[in-house]
Design goal:
Two copies of one chain form a homodimer.
Chain A: H1 14-22, E1 31-33, E2 40-42, E3 49-57, H2 69-87, E4 90-100, H3 106-122, E5 126-134, E6 139-147, E7 163-167, H4 172-180, H5 188-199, H6 205-211, E8 219-222, H7 227-238, E9 241-244, H8 253-259, H9 264-268, E10 275-279, H10 285-292, E11 296-303, E12 307-310
Parallel strand pairs in A: 4-5, 9-12
Antiparallel strand pairs in A: 1-2, 3-6, 4-6, 7-10, 7-11, 8-10, 9-11
Chain lengths: ~325, ~325
């Protein structure tokens, strides 16, 4: 009946572990009661609330040893923050479930926790509760609350005539993952840039919040599954299609150095956590980039006819694109 | 990079799976947007909000085949509902993370999902979001939001002189688990009662909400780790101790039939999800039971001196009670 990792010799019991994970946490005014009771208590909010859940599982989303334990912790929060960013919201509070194998060592957990806390502090998110269960593999599941602000960006709001934009550069994380998995080789500078893009993605919180202030409110989604996959989610939700100029997809210098003219990682590689958005704006890229505080590139336009049309190439027939109707 | 179970032949991709899990969900007025976008959108609430997270892992909290898949789904929500009940709140919305092994079959997932939905419907909880990841073992992690009402019951509010009460009967779930694990034998009627108490615990939501209306507001906690363990959490949080009459601990007829005069399951067995509360009330048990809509039994009183004193026996030296100071 014991659901806790207390049967391991190296680990303290659940109660002590939670106390350790939450020791010395400081909270914003929004939090009335943090970890330690059956629930956290949060002050009522004036705006609509955003809620999302995401999980990072050892062997599926990360391998121990690829990055530091701190980076694993940071990354677990970042993928959740990205969901809030994609709606244009401000993250506020989270609860964290840890699945911890019996073989886990306390120094590893402490370092992972340090990464989680520093990411939470940087994003001004209160860690208000936690739960620990023993498990065969490490898993960090985070449920994150956010404040919606005055306007929310949804993925079902793309309309024919909208321009399609992305933030940052695409495909870096996919290449970083392939480098870590020894599937691709890279020289030191490009290697460290691409691996970092995979290990410590940046949720585009500030850009998302500023985007949500445009009128009309853009449609947006974060790129977690890959550009074509996430674009198709947006198109399906909105009941529209897209013309894409794949040669416009923004690539980093490191991407070009490693992958040359192979666009597949940028089109179908996931885990970039950049924003993909559709806006009726006539602002030039440069002005939009200035306003959002991040490089923004126009890569196409929304059309009435369903499916995705690429300007120069055929749609890659990779797994997972069965719902793309061309 | 694919974090989804789509590499399995039997399972549809993540996107389709989530669509299936959320198909036909109906929402209360509180929910502006349910599953399908990066986040759910919820209307702002007038009262303080409760937030909790809990996880049920195959092999740790349940074994496939012990109950029906529907019961596994129901139980996953019930343990979360119990945390809201213990604070006296009303559950409102949840997000669910599924860890699904590649060997999983769709009919099993569909049935589990049916159990989750019917439990959510019964508790008037909106399932507003989900996430699916492949994993080595089944895991259902639920983050649940609740409305705190006018007053919240906390575990740090027990004061010397308070009477200590529990709802329902204790130790049934522990015996049910031991029956399923072939550690204890029982005749058919007692067996099915005890096994049901383990497989489908009842969160004491109504009793919790009514309790929170008593003045002064009681201290409360749910009994998930066992009476002595959870009492000690409450005593530690409140900085007090307790005198307990262990012969007063309420036992079911089935418990007595199977365990005779062995009180250990009632004192230290977990997973009962009854409420343990401390109240300054002078109401007799019968009247309190009537008001709360569930049997209530007085089992002791809070004292100034730390630790737990039992009336007739020594504290059991079971694992996990190291923080009990006698």
């Amino acid at each position: 009946l014991r659901s806790v990792a207390s049967s391991s010799k190296d680990l303290p019991g659940e109660f002590e572990l939670i106390a350790r994970l939450s020791a010395g946490l400081r909270f914003s005014r929004r939090t009335i009661l943090g970890p330690g009771d059956d629930c956290a208590i949060l002050r009522p909010a004036r705006n609509a609330q955003l809620l999302t859940i995401d999980s990072m599982v050892e062997g599926v989303h990360f391998k121990i040893g690829w990055g530091t334990p701190e980076q694993i912790g940071e990354r677990a929060l970042a993928v959740n923050l990205s969901d809030i960013a994609a709606m244009g919201g401000t993250p506020t509070a989270c609860v964290i479930n840890f699945g911890i194998p019996k073989t886990a060592k306390m120094p590893f957990i402490d370092r992972l926790n340090r990464g989680l806390r520093s990411a939470a502090r940087a994003a001004q998110v209160d860690i208000v509760g936690g739960n620990i269960t023993s498990a065969r593999e490490f898993a960090i599941t985070i449920a994150l609350l956010g404040d919606a602000g005055a306007q929310v960006m949804r993925r079902d709001a793309a309309r024919p005539g909208d321009n399609i934009f992305v933030t940052g550069t695409l495909g870096d994380a996919a290449l970083g993952w392939r480098i870590l998995a020894h599937k691709v080789r890279a020289q030191s500078r490009a290697r460290s840039f691409l691996v970092d893009r995979y290990l410590t993605p940046t949720a585009r919180l500030e850009a998302g919040a500023r985007l949500a202030r445009l009128r009309p409110v853009p449609a947006a989604i974060d790129i977690s599954d890959g550009l074509l996959q996430d674009l198709s989610h947006m198109l399906d939700s909105s009941g529209v299609g897209a013309d894409l100029d794949e040669t416009k997809v923004p690539l980093s210098a490191a991407y070009r150095e490693v992958a040359r003219d192979d666009l597949s990682h940028a089109l179908t590689g996931g885990e970039d956590y950049e924003l993909l958005f559709c806006a009726r704006t006539s602002l030039p890229e440069r002005e939009l980039s200035r306003r959002l505080g991040v490089r923004v590139t126009r890569i196409g336009a929304i059309r009435r006819r369903r499916g995705i049309g690429l300007a120069h190439m055929k749609l890659p027939a990779s797994a997972g694109y069965d719902q793309l109707r061309g």
